[in-house]
């Protein structure tokens, strides 16, 4: 259940109550595709750095260790020792990212596994069954993420099919949640709005899926090659046509500046692999913008990554030391930078919530964007 605590223009501050705890929104979900954050970050670490929701991937977990194995071991929460909310992506994004290895039909998608090439089929029912076995808090509907650019005719056909798939997802989830042996009988379902960069298709799809009274709604198919301006234009068009009493989730986004812009347009949930991926390559976020610790100028820099930051890396280590770890190919370098970047994102979201609560979000947004732009 989503409770709107405060609204200022389009900006929303809310609470989302789930079977695994209450989520304060806006929120950034920390991405652990295979039930772990890449970079040797544990579930205990996630609590220390302020993570509210962890995100894992249906397609990848169905391949290894296998969703039935996770179910045997008590579900994803027990498996990874995480008692807060988990959202599982549906596998729909792999329809996009594995374009050369799949065939889309009405019944679902035929894949070749990226691991060993074996044939896999996933449709709406299969996606729901896998996510039910995982027992995640929030399951995402199975959809097609359309590449950009795409012809209007293709996008219209794809969106119509995604709508039919969503109805099948809802029916299958209702069935699964009614079974006695289901891992999480209160599993929630979010639908996904698609339509490329065609505003009218997006709006019509938003109106259609809103009628299904789902637990939340996502805007998918963005951050896949379009400009930031195009992305903001689509968000502006879609958000007013999604239910305002449900959380709105912008999938796969993104940069801190993108998050601020999307919050100002009414978005509640975010996720992206970017902070962890950047961290593994020595690119870290600071209050003054992103820096690359591999640069020679940090060789003798005895300051923390970001002055005043309370993350485990900044409280204990210097830029010079972490740079040395990268040069020496020590895995601790990756761990420290991933911890820092995820802490930075989680703290940014808390600061955003505080700014909304205190009625100074617009000033906060302008100050942050100016700071980051100045560094760039």
UniProtKB/TrEMBL annotation:
Gene Ontology terms describing biological process: tRNA queuosine(34) biosynthetic process
Pathway this chain belongs to: tRNA modification; tRNA-queuosine biosynthesis
EC numbers, comma separated: 2.4.2.29
Reaction(s) the record says it catalyses: 7-aminomethyl-7-carbaguanine + guanosine(34) in tRNA = 7-aminomethyl-7-carbaguanosine(34) in tRNA + guanine
Cofactor(s) demanded: Zn(2+)
One GO term describing the cellular component: cytosol
GO MF, one example: tRNA-guanosine(34) queuine transglycosylase activity
Entries under Pfam families matching the protein: TGT
Co-factor: note: Binds 1 zinc ion per subunit.
Active site: 89, 271
InterPro entries per UniProt: ArchSynthase1/Queuine_TRR, TGT, TGT-like_sf, tRNA_ribo_trans-like
Amino acids binding substrate: 89-93, 143, 194, 221
Residues covered by region (RNA binding): 252-258, 276-280
Keywords linked to the UniProt accession: Glycosyltransferase, Metal-binding, Queuosine biosynthesis, Transferase, tRNA processing, Zinc
Enzyme class: transferase
Cross-referenced SUPFAM superfamilies: tRNA-guanine transglycosylase
tRNA processing listed as a keyword: yes
Boundaries of every tRNA-guanine(15) transglycosylase-like domain copy: 11-372
Assembly and interaction partners: Homodimer. Within each dimer, one monomer is responsible for RNA recognition and catalysis, while the other monomer binds to the replacement base PreQ1.
HAMAP family linked: Q_tRNA_Tgt
Family as reported in the entry's similarity comment: Belongs to the queuine tRNA-ribosyltransferase family.
Name of the featured protein: Queuine tRNA-ribosyltransferase
Taxon lineage: Bacteria, Bacillati, Bacillota, Clostridia, Eubacteriales
């Amino acid at each position: 259940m989503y409770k709107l605590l405060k609204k200022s223009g389009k900006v929303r501050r809310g609470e989302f109550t789930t079977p695994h705890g209450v989520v304060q929104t806006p929120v950034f979900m920390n991405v652990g595709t295979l039930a772990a954050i890449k970079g040797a970050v544990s579930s205990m670490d996630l609590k220390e750095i302020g993570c509210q929701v962890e995100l894992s991937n249906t397609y990848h977990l169905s391949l290894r260790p296998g969703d039935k194995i996770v179910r045997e071991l008590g579900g994803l929460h027990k498996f990874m020792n995480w008692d807060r909310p988990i959202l599982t992506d549906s596998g729909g994004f792999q329809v996009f990212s594995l374009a050369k290895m799949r065939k889309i039909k009405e019944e679902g998608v035929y894949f070749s596994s990226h691991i060993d090439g074996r044939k896999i089929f996933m449709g709406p029912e299969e996606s729901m069954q896998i996510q039910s076995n995982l027992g995640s808090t929030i399951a995402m509907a199975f959809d097609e993420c359309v590449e950009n650019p795409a012809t209007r005719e293709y996008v219209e056909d794809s969106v119509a099919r995604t709508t039919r798939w969503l109805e099948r997802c809802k029916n299958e989830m209702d069935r699964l949640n009614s079974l006695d042996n289901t891992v999480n009988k209160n599993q929630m379902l979010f639908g996904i709005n698609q339509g490329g960069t065609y505003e009218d298709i997006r709006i019509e799809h938003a109106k259609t899926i809103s009628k299904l009274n789902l637990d939340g709604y996502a805007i998918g198919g963005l951050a896949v090659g379009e400009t930031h301006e195009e992305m903001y234009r689509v968000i502006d068009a879609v958000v007013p046509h999604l239910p305002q009493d449900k959380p709105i989730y912008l999938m796969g986004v993104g940069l801190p500046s993108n998050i601020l812009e999307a919050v100002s347009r009414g978005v509640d949930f975010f996720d992206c692999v970017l902070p962890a991926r950047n961290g593994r390559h020595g690119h870290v976020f600071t209050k003054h913008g992103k820096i690359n610790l591999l640069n020679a100028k940090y060789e003798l820099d005895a300051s923390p990554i970001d002055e005043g930051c309370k993350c485990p890396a900044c409280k204990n280590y210097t830029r010079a030391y972490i740079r040395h770890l990268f040069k020496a190919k020590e895995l601790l370098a990756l761990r420290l930078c991933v911890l820092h970047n995820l802490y930075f994102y989680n703290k940014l979201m808390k600061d955003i919530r505080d700014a909304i609560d205190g009625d100074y979000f617009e000033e906060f947004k302008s100050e942050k964007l100016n700071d980051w732009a100045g560094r760039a």
